[in-house]
Amino acid sequence: MTERAYTADNVTFILTLHLKSGCEEEFRALLTPVLDAMRQEPTFINAALHRDPEDPSRFMLYETWADLDDVTQVQMHRGYRAAYWERLPDLLAKDRQIQVWKPIRGDFA
Length: 109
Hints:
By secondary structure, the protein is an alpha+beta fold. It is built from 3 helices and 4 strands, in the order βαββααβ. It has helices spanning about 25-40, 70-75, 80-90; strands spanning about 10-20, 45-50, 60-65, 95-100. A 4-stranded antiparallel sheet has the order 2-3-1-4, with no helix packed on it. A hairpin with a 6-residue loop joins β2 (about 45-50) and β3. α1 packs antiparallel against α3 (about 80-90).
């Protein structure tokens, strides 16, 4: 993958997901192919999945994309997301929290 510098059009989503206890592995199994497919998208910049060390049912997903309109109009409707979208409501203990940020700098080793 080619490194992409941040631009004024980039957008980062931070999603916090609280799962029902015992649903963690199914969640990860559904999300893994989505993350793998996203990596191939031309407007994808990066993503990182985190797990709360004090609450194994709480996850944070960080995604940066080159264009907000592309994410909302194209990426969210990709076929590879269908199984994930279909099951997610049943896995969540409460509604997802979604924050939208504009990245201005990124430092990665």
